[in-house]
Amino acid sequence: MTARPTLRQRKTFALIRIVAGLVAAFYLGYVVVANLLAGVPFDNTLRFSALVALAGLGYAGWYLRDLSAVAREERGDV
Q1: pLDDT for 8-62, tens place per residue?
Q2: Range of the domain at 34
Q3: How many structural domains is the chain composed of?
Q4: Distances in whole angstroms, Cα of residue 24 to Cα of each of 44, 59, 67
Q5: Which of 32, 38, 41, 55 is the most buried (most CB within 10 A)?
Q6: Which keywords label this protein (predicted)?
Q7: Is 53 exposed, middle or buried (0-12, 13-18, 19+ CB in 10 A)?
Q8: In sequence order, what are the residues at sequence separation of 6 or more whose Cβ sits closer than 8 angstroms to the Cβ of residue 20?
Q9: Eight-class DSSP state of 1
Q10: Is the residue at 1 inside a domain?
């Protein structure tokens, strides 16, 4: 039998992942926009950076759903 994380631990893990995803997405988004404004062509490297930025937003969104589920469990709305 494995130990299940407490609600507080699940909330902390979700918040860390949300912040990490947003930081990655905003930083890479800034890099893409700054390079485009500097006149760098939108080549494969810049496209990949833009895709990873979108993945970071998706990652944060996924764990935002997890955080919402934890909040519902805390309230007893399961």
Answers
A1: 999 999 999 999 999 999 999 999 999 999 999 999 999 999 999 999 999 999 9
A2: 7-75
A3: 1
A4: 19, 10, 19
A5: 32
A6: Membrane, Transmembrane, Transmembrane helix
A7: buried
A8: 59, 60
A9: -
A10: no
